[in-house]
Amino acid sequence: MTRTPKKRQQHSRLERERQVERLLIVGVVAVGLAVIGLMVYGLVIYPAMLADQPVAFVDGVPITVAEFQARTRLARLDLRQALSWWQDQQYSASATADDAAMDAMQKYINEYADLLSPDKATAIAKQTLNRLIELELARQEAERRGIVLTPDEVQRLIELDSGYDREAAAAPQQPADEPTPAGALTTTGEITPTGVITPAAAPLPTWTPLPTRTPLPTATPMTEDAFQARYNDQIDALASYGITEEMFRSWFAADQQLIELREVMASEHPTMTEQIELRYLTTTSEEQANDFAARLADGEDYQALVDEIDAAVVATLESPPGHAELVWYPRSEIEGELAFLGTALIDLAFDLEVGAYSEPRLSEDGTTYAILSVTGHEEERELEPVLLNELIEQAYQDWLLSMIAEVVERLPYDSSIIPTRP
After folding, report:
1. What are the pLDDT digits (tens) for 14-32?
2. Rounded CA gap, 286 and 356, in Å?
3. Torsion (CA) 250, 256, 257, 258 in degrees, nearest 10
4. Does residue 210 have a pLDDT over 50?
């Protein structure tokens, strides 16, 4: 049967409608797939790619976004735990502590809470990145010096840090110490006059993650099962903050390498050097300086001039003369303490005979006249322990800054990657 023109028109219209429907379906599916693709990219692919992006290179070794974020979360977690610790201390002491003690604890609480505020997130992140850079530099330097930890050594150190000692746990147990009488108070801290127990290792209100030392053994050795349970709990807790077991172990190893590296560097620092005992008088008046010099030359007692200067300081605020004594200082420290005098005057101090006085000399900055007197001079003298520690620390910081300038490249990153929790 032959189709009429009318039927052919209807058939054509139906075909066009079907084509439009198919195109619409294809379009909807394509848009849906594109949306899903964008979601997968935004939720899965992009974060994975971002996590592998570097925020810094340390002699070619990258510090990734993932490690940077994880370590920042750990820093915030440390701060939050310290905040909780102080809050608990305040609550426990609320019934017995006086107002001064409560105010002191509240001060720490406020400072920790401020550090955890959103506007401090960038500062914590910056400090964290600095720490990661320092650890990587220390790891590289330690390995150059042969300070290397095997996986078993890292495991043993983690065990000891947690209080588990394999040898102590395997050894026959000794009888327990006499029990503490009921009602006796024991503490590792000190009892202040106000009656508030001050912990021996109370957290400080600034976060500076430091290498940890092996704790003292406990009276009852921890068992392997107890250690493993504690370790697993710790790893699970860290995982909830995006900190993997691999990160934890690598940071722990790096901390230990830093400890050993600093011990080696400290042992290399000289403990003896040329030192002098120096005292000096200063004044802004050339006339007064010449008067002091003449009186000393005539045999007047140095202490009499010091007493006169002290009286002048009390009597007037208009540029009174001054005096000071430096007891057994090496050149490096005198240069720091007396930088205003200048190199020429410091050289003069080391050239003076013991007991002699210098002529009045104008300081390098042109503001002060000084009369120097050396009361002791030794070519080789043992450095005082406190000063030696300061010099060792300064030497390490100088090394660190020089390495940062030489081999560290920091890359820009968006502030949106900085964690603000926990």
Report:
1. 677 677 777 777 667 666 6
2. 20
3. 110
4. no
pTM, two decimals, is 0.72
DSSP 8-state symbol, 217: P
- pLDDT, one tens digit per residue, over 297-310 is 999 999 999 988 88
| 209 touches 78 (CB < 8 A) | yes
Predicted pLDDT of residue 1: 53
193 pLDDT exceeds 60? no
Residues 6+ apart with CB under 8 A from 133: 56, 58, 63, 404, 408
What ranges do the domains of the chain cover? 67-168+222-271, 273-382
Fold of the domain spanning 273-382: Chitinase A; domain 3 (3.10.50)
Selection from 343, 376, 396 nearest residue 274 by Cα: 376
Residue 364 has pLDDT above 60, yes or no: yes
Beta-bridge partner residues of 324: 280
Q: Which residues of 310-323 are buried (b: 16+ CB within 10 A; e: fewer)?
A: eebeeeeeeebbbb
Question: What tokens does 84 get?
Answer: 């909780």
Phi, psi of 2 (to 5 degrees): -75, 135
* Sheet strand arrangement including 369-382: 322-330, 272-283, 369-382, 361-362
Between CA 364 and CA 326 the distance in angstroms is 19
What single-letter DSSP state applies at residue 271?
S
Cα distances from 221 to residues 162, 174, 235, in angstroms, run 11, 11, 22
Q: What is the pLDDT of residues 247-299, one digit of tens each?
A: 999 999 999 999 999 999 999 999 999 999 999 999 999 999 999 999 999 99
- Full DSSP string of 52-121: TSEEEEETTEEEEHHHHHHHHHHHHHHHHHHHHHHHHHHHHHTTT--HHHHHHHHHHHHHHHHHTSGGGH
